[in-house]
Amino acid sequence: MRSELLDLILGLLPDTHPRPELRAFYAMLRDYPQRGGKGLRSELLLLSAQAHGARQGTPQWQSALWLGAVIELFQNWVLIHDDIEDDSEERRGKPALHRLHGLPLALNAGDALHAYMWAAVEQAGVPGAYREVLTMIHRTAEGQHLDLDWVARREWDLSEADYLEMVQLKTAYYTVIIPLRLGALAAGCLPSDAFTPAGEALGSAFQIRDDVLNLLEDAGNYGKEIGGDLLEGKRTLIVLHWLNAAPAKQRAVFLEQMALSRADKDPARMAEVLNWLRQSGSLDHAQDYAAQQGERGLALLREALSGAADPAAVANMLGLARSYVTREA
Amino acid sequence: MRSELLDLILGLLPDTHPRPELRAFYAMLRDYPQRGGKGLRSELLLLSAQAHGARQGTPQWQSALWLGAVIELFQNWVLIHDDIEDDSEERRGKPALHRLHGLPLALNAGDALHAYMWAAVEQAGVPGAYREVLTMIHRTAEGQHLDLDWVARREWDLSEADYLEMVQLKTAYYTVIIPLRLGALAAGCLPSDAFTPAGEALGSAFQIRDDVLNLLEDAGNYGKEIGGDLLEGKRTLIVLHWLNAAPAKQRAVFLEQMALSRADKDPARMAEVLNWLRQSGSLDHAQDYAAQQGERGLALLREALSGAADPAAVANMLGLARSYVTREA
């Protein structure tokens, strides 16, 4: 993440208080933002602002920076709550917040960080940004509900189309569509309608790449535990594709393990499942699909921005969007 | 709650979706608001708006109604998350949301409802309301952190002053101070500075009355489980006052039980503790303190509103504020 952005975020969050308990609370709010997120989404937003004509050092650029802070604060509070919902162990190479402080305190800290995100929206002062942030939260929460509901009901009778609908809600809005739109608004432009289909394609590609990385043995730079999605019973394109053609015995072992809680899953059995998945060709299928969606999204985006104010920024933006599908971490 | 308010809330929340899972999600968002909360806080806000000169049927009144919806939506998303944090069993006579749908889905629904609260802020269109809502969330989350942190660390070495600082943050802002201020803003008036000390006194009185009701055997209309606070290890003025003078043996039994999780607590021992508390005079002490704080708050409020536009509304408002301390449910 750009250092100016982190400075804005840390300047917005409270720091000190006469009561030691509340100093500790403030430190919890500052924890995830300081763990060095890559800041891909705010970078996309800033490149979109630049492509639409916002120049560094102008009030428009300052607004774009604040909206970048909004996107990063959004991701941070959502991650605190996601980590609780999935009972994840790690986040960005350290224990998840609720593993450090217990669930109740971490949940409450996520709520407080959510409110500071709205304080950043106010700082940006960009007409229309408010509605975009509401849409981002609504769609992300809907996608998250689908994901969690399938886990809770142990629903595996799902098509690849079901998965794509889920990730288009859960990932595409906050990762691509809304950053692109907020960048345009910060520059005083009307966002292109094509940002939605472009973002759905690129967002799916991004999430599928994330799912692939989560299963690769050598994803050393990746900030989450390898195979964690599988232990959490997450639906991925890889698993759904494999399950569709898996031998009956493998399928039965998989569904048996998926009916158990994370703690009750048999590590040896789960290692077998991981091997079957890796040997099945489903990782390649998912990666190919992600690449194809990525190209589709890039083409749509290139066309939507063909008359943009700053062609060099458009090129940088397309390069960043391309890295969504090829990234190693 | 006034029916116009519930109509605004239910009209704002989404209702239908092609996917059954998302229809179920929307039903979760609509659940707590439909359980018939008393709407004390929105009522206080509306009476404050009226006292400051907002007349029914005017655009100012419509803004006040939207801000009433904000306060109710705030309470509802906070209650969903509180019930998770405390692992409460019931809310308004029915199972808590996370007991119906599991923790992950309920947590996510609370986040979505939080965002719909911000949509209601936008609908109100009242300058300055945004800042008030931010302050309300920040102070409430800080108070909630103190409360939860003491539970998590099994901290019982606390004074009555510690308790009061906690409830002034946790309860006073969203129950009194911010409703009073938002009512004034809806009517186009600058809120009186005296609303803060008045609200701190009345808010403490309200929370202490809540704590007292939670321990009374015959609180039949009360929407939470009797003695639930004790099982959850909540710090209350009653417990802190009793603990200060309790015989060493009673104190030891209490601390021993408090070191256990809710499920591990011995029901017979806890019934003994409840009896000691009820016989100690600490309930009377707390009730007397609440009454005294209530009178102080009322006097401050009466003075602050001595020149108000609508004296009849001020009288209704003072009557409502008085009921905070005498309520039976």
UniProtKB/TrEMBL annotation, chains A, B:
Keyword Transmembrane in annotation: no
Keywords: Magnesium, Metal-binding, Transferase
Pfam families to which the protein is assigned, alphabetical: polyprenyl_synt
CDD domains assigned to the protein according to its UniProt record, in alphabetical order: Trans_IPPS_HT (cd00685)
Cofactor list: Mg(2+)
PANTHER family listed in its UniProt record: GERANYLGERANYL PYROPHOSPHATE SYNTHASE (PTHR12001), SHORT CHAIN ISOPRENYL DIPHOSPHATE SYNTHASE (PTHR12001:SF85)
InterPro entries linked to this entry: Isoprenoid_synthase_dom_sf, Polyprenyl_synt, Polyprenyl_synt_CS
Record-given protein name: Polyprenyl synthetase family protein
PROSITE patterns, sorted: POLYPRENYL_SYNTHASE_1, POLYPRENYL_SYNTHASE_2
Keyword Oxidoreductase on entry: no
Lineage top rank: taxon: Bacteria
SUPFAM superfamilies: Terpenoid synthases
Sequence similarity: Belongs to the FPP/GGPP synthase family.
